[in-house]
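Quick one, T. Sequence first:
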Amino acid sequence: MRRHEWRVLGLIVGVSLTIGSRAHAQSITWLGVLPGYDYSYATGVSADGSIVSGICGQNFGDSVVGFRWTSSDGMQSLEHPDGSTFAWSVASHTDRIVGGLTVASEARAFYWDAGSLQTLFGLGGVYTMAYNVSADGSVIVGASTTIRNEARAVRWRGSTPEDLGVLSGRNTSSAYGVSADGSVIVGVSSGSGYNATAVRWTPDGIEALSVPSNWISSTAVRASADGDIVIGTAETDDGRRVAFRWNSSTAQDLGTLGGNSVFAYDITDDGDVVVGFSQLEDESGAAFRWTVSDGMENLNTTYAYLLTNGSHLVEARGISSDGRYIVGMGYNAATNQTEAFPLDTACTGHNGDVDASGCVDDADLLAVLFAFGSTGANLGRVDVNCDQTIDDADLLTVLFNFGSGC
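Structure tokens:
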């Protein structure tokens, strides 16, 4: 560069910078709602982000129906003539969605694939629900009441339910998550004077997850691909709700975005990324992502430039196996509705418009200069050419396109 250009750059560097270098989302899609319903939320996403499971409802509880969304076909109702449906999860590598169907005072587990909804037998009671499914769709887990009206964790490998049992001395359990190959299942066991305890079922049997002594109850909800890392939520003796990540023998509190209630909902295959909901200091809520390397972040801060006119991500319910896609529920200011969303966090090369304002200007140049020399996979739009390094190539792209769209 010529000497006077370096002088200009030197002056620009002295200007205050407000754009964060971790803004690394690329797109958010608001899914809307099915006709006749007034809100929606997403519960799961396939490995490639092409399928999203979720629920639409009226008046937050009056009537609900599960849905399947694809980028090609939009939102499809998983309705059943007998009653309301809940779609709780979608398999990573197949089109199978699992959930439950409520009919009067009963509930029946189901799976949906190939355009057909099939109910699953339970353990003889009036309540059965499927909550999660293995990567290939062959193992489904959930809960069912027995003929004695005791809730038990259930596994289906085919159509026959298997009672997974309970911790010694207790009489209830539920299964909420399963490893990719179906060999490890996680959930909760309680009853008979015991508080809820997070558990894991392996080929060797059931085990209670070790947690700090001041956690008076705990529930495990999902597991990594190999089942060695488990996430869940616990209640402390001072009334807080904490999200945790258990690894072999230790349960780690994932922290908070300021409030006293935090819930973990899903985890990547490698166990390094967790998503969920955290209460804020003002008692409102926000979707979070937690990583081993950087801890907890508010997705509304990270992806602020995508959330126009007051839109807000309330909770992150699911994450793809590699961490690229995040789904959940938020407020869409454009429609004034609570809606499901899939968020694509992949880096995409661009013309230097770092803040996605439509204009390549001083703000974009400042962002690149401020982050110059940074490396890593989560640099975001400031990594203009997506090579995981902020260097001359990114700077030159901004300079070459300076003024474009302005």
